[in-house]
Amino acid sequence: IVPLREAVSEKYRRENGLEYDVSRVLISTGAKQSLFNVLHAILDPEDECLIPTPAWVSYPEMVKTTGAKPVFVSMTESSGFRLTPEQLKDAITPRTRALILCSPSNPTGAVYSEAEARALAGVLEGKDIHIISDEVYEKMVYGSGRHVSISTVSPEMAERTIVVNSCSKTYAMTGWRIGFMTGP
User: Fold this and answer.
1) What digits encode the pLDDT tens for the residues 90-120?
2) What are phi and psi of 25, to 5 degrees?
3) Which residues pair with residue 134 across a beta bridge?
């Protein structure tokens, strides 16, 4: 419904500094449905989707349903379980079509700083790779960290990032099954 899409658009403007017209907001039956929809919209069989690990168990299985290949990029404790620009650069192949980036991360809790998001964006700029930014835990940041969406670090990232979110975690509305995504 339009009022719900308007509320999502306003949330992104007010809280994230992102301007999304209502026509660029899709409501779904949860973030998992949004992720499934976007993966099926952008991946073809034989494509590759980069998944930093450890990761949420559903990511690779959803990628597989498209016929694409999940490509795991192992993160370590020494990097704070965050993907580094070097790892990202090394993982990209001619078949890479997407990167799933979850910040704050499920299951590690790692949060990318603005500088880290900019560094990852620097690797991706000029490449035909979509970023699927899973931000369902954006309000669950503790200590001195803060959530930064990779879609905010450059105009190019804003045009190639699909931001996925839901009401279940932040607003404790798990039974209502309301998810949403925004992007190009």
Assistant:
1) 999 999 999 999 999 999 999 999 999 999 9
2) -115, 125
3) 102, 164
